[in-house]
Write a structure and sequence with these properties.
Blueprint: H1 11-14, E1 21-24, E2 29-32
Antiparallel strand pairs: 1-2
Length: 33
């Protein structure tokens, strides 16, 4: 299958415009820098 990150409630409110975001679909993690 295709790795994905799901169930990140409120992500669009928490991540500021222009932020660098790293998604790891295999681990299911989101890192906001």
């Amino acid at each position: 299958g295709i790795p994905a990150v799901v169930g990140v409630a409120g992500a669009t409110e928490r991540i500021a415009t222009g932020s660098r975001v790293t998604l790891d679909g295999t681990a299911g993690t989101v890192v906001i820098e």
